[in-house]
Amino acid sequence: MRNLNSSLDTGENPSPSTNNSLTVITPTEKITSKSFNYVNLDLIDKELACPICFFPFYDPVVHSSCGNTFCRECVNSLSQCPICHEGDFSSEKVTVVKIIRNQLDKLAVFCPMCKNVVNRGELKNHQEKYCPLRDAYQQVEQMKRDLEKEFEEKKMKLEQEFQEKNQKLDREHSLYLEQAENELKQKEKELMKQF
């Protein structure tokens, strides 16, 4: 089977540390097959892998002309099938049968919070109800949001101060130029009187 994850090319078994991000799948997040940290991509049947992204399908669709299956996200912007190059892809996508979806939901993935192994189809439920680090993660997320808000407020304040100082410098510069022009005119008048 073709390697589906470049980190597996070395023959190492993936561990929870292969994905160091602390991403949690939330209802507002755009989920793709790459959103998951699979336990071992080499053991996943290649028939369950998208020929475009090479990861297990997420929200799979079948092209009605050739029967090839893809992640919906991978073909959303395509007009034709990337394999058979036929048919208007946008109107000919068919949702995959339930048995394939069930197989995909049973794939083992690591919870990005606690690093426990759960079925892909149960990850969101695990994160919302059973993950031992859920509360701590939510606190960290709240702290992150608070820090981002504080950063934005400070950034806006600094930008405003910069703008005010810049305007003050512009006014001082204009006054200085005006004074210099007046002095120059005065000296010109004095020189003209001498001749």
From TrEMBL:
GO biological process: protein polyubiquitination; ubiquitin-dependent protein catabolic process
Coiled coil: 133-190
Family annotation (Pfam families): zf-RING_UBOX
InterPro entries to which the protein is assigned, alphabetical: RNF_E3_ubiq-protein_ligase, Znf-RING_euk, Znf_RING, Znf_RING/FYVE/PHD
GO molecular function: ubiquitin protein ligase activity; zinc ion binding
Entry keywords, A to Z: Coiled coil, Metal-binding, Zinc, Zinc-finger
Gene3D superfamilies, per database record: Zinc/RING finger domain, C3HC4 (zinc finger)
Span of domain RING-type: 50-85
Domain of life: Eukaryota
Residue span of region Disordered: 1-23
Protein's recorded name: RING-type domain-containing protein
Organism per entry: Naegleria fowleri
Lineage per the UniProt record: Eukaryota, Discoba, Heterolobosea, Tetramitia, Eutetramitia
